[in-house]
Design a protein that fits this description.
Layout (H helix, E strand, L loop, with lengths): L4 E6 L6 H7 L3 E7 L3 H7 L3 E3 L2 H7 L4 E4 L7 H9 L3 E4 L7 H10 L1
Parallel strand pairs: 1-2, 1-4, 2-3, 4-5
Helix pairs in contact: 4-5
Length: 107
């Protein structure tokens, strides 16, 4: 089908993920999340969130990029995976083996 995948970005406004989703024909960037609302305002005019739980609850996403700082990857990655989304953890996988193992088990 020609239906686009609904994409979201967690804390990826400064990264290129939002721009990449906007440019890819297969995706529709529908929401972003960053704890710094001023960063969102400078980039995005659609749905914006400062709490990643909201993006999972409100938006009907198919895929999400998790571009949080390395030591904050675990919960967003695991929660998005449990919500049934395709998850792209960005940068280093995590900062501890325990958290990395938790993500692997969840995904």
């Amino acid at each position: 089908t020609n239906q686009k995948l609904r994409a979201g970005v967690m804390a990826g406004v400064r990264a290129s993920h939002g721009y990449a989703y906007n440019q890819a024909d297969e995706f529709e960037l529908v929401a972003i999340c960053d704890i710094k609302s001023e960063v969102i305002d400078a980039f995005f005019e659609r749905c914006e969130y400062t709490d990643y739980h909201e993006i999972l609850e409100v938006e009907k996403l198919d895929v999400v990029s998790v571009a949080t700082p390395d030591d904050y990857h675990t919960n967003p990655v695991c929660d998005a995976s449990k919500a049934g989304l395709k998850v792209f953890p960005v940068k280093n996988f995590d900062t501890s083996l325990k958290d990395a193992d938790r993500m692997i088990e969840t995904i």
